[in-house]
Write a structure and sequence with these properties.
- The chain contains 10 helices and 2 strands; from the N terminus they run ααααααββαααα.
- By secondary structure, it is mainly α.
- It has one domain.
- Helix 2 packs antiparallel against helix 5 and helix 7 packs across helix 8.
- It is globular and about 55 Å long.
């Protein structure tokens, strides 16, 4: 067992050493580089969510869902038509396709498929729009968009790291009740508050030493990310528990799938987009 844990830890560290610098470089470059990354992630997440949904329903083929996802993400970037119109087209196509399918319950099939379609595409679409903050659609982006995405990632990572070590060292010592035992029995309130502290602290440090962060709001964004970040992990745990699986896939060695690794980002990105767009 210890050998298995060591191998898993090695895989996680190796992926992080390669993946994090690559992600930061793509964010810095923006433009089609960032679109390509979001497109790949959204396609993989669509594949994984269909895999989860297939445990409860009979979602349509990937030959339909993957092109639909690619169309929605491209529209978030290039804006061929309004966003709601693109989503409406996708929804209506799924309705019509279901008329010709005879597997399972149509209610369950459409429900499971639409949940995945909206969850995946609106989450990654919001991430894409967040990177394009302050620019015209289709342009590479400016430092403000890059800074917002960078701030979000470092806060999410910090909240996760601090929550893990805070929960490991302090979990249950001050508050015996678990944070959300129905979906995640290991999460503790001590870990939760440690995550908030970590996210706030790293955002404050970044605002002092890293140029380009949004007009003094970095600390508030860090606090916001720390407070709401567990919801993304809990949401994905909810889907996996209902499907009866441990990981959404094994595509990322040591980390599971895209839904496992980017669950918090997928929840935070739409919220942060609203905060920055309307704040």
């Amino acid at each position: 067992m210890s050998s298995l844990l060591q191998n898993n830890l090695f895989q996680r560290v190796a992926v992080a050493l390669v993946g994090i610098p690559l992600l930061l470089w793509i964010n810095m470059e923006g433009g089609l580089y960032f679109l390509s990354m979001v497109l790949v992630l959204s396609l993989m997440a669509t594949f994984e969510f269909r895999r989860l949904a297939a445990h409860r329903a009979h979602p349509p083929t990937l030959l339909l869902l993957l092109p639909m996802t690619a169309f929605l993400q491209a529209n978030f970037y290039f804006r061929f038509i309004d966003y709601w119109e693109a989503l409406l087209i996708a929804v209506m196509v799924l309705y019509v396709v279901e008329l010709w399918r005879q597997q399972g319950s149509q209610f369950l099939n459409l429900g499971a498929t639409l949940v995945g379609l909206v969850y995946v595409n609106l989450s990654f679409g919001a991430l894409l729009r967040l990177r394009l903050t302050g620019t015209a659609p289709g342009s590479p982006g400016t430092e403000s968009g890059a800074a917002l995405v960078l701030l979000m990632f470092v806060c999410v990572w910090s909240a996760d790291i601090f929550a893990y070590f805070g929960g490991s060292r302090l979990g249950g010592k001050f508050i015996s009740r678990k944070l959300f035992p129905r979906l995640s029995p290991k999460k503790t309130w001590e870990g939760y508050f440690s995550g908030i502290l970590g996210s706030f602290a790293i955002a404050w440090l970044c605002s002092l030493y890293v140029p380009g962060f949004p007009d003094g709001r970095a600390s508030l964004i860090g606090l916001f990310v720390g407070v709401v970040s567990p919801a993304g992990d809990l949401m994905e745990s909810m889907f996996k528990r209902d499907a009866g699986v441990k990981d959404s896939s094994g595509v990322i060695p040591g980390h599971g799938g895209v839904l496992d690794r980017f669950d918090t980002v997928m929840f935070i990105a739409p919220l942060l987009y609203f905060v920055t767009a309307w704040g």
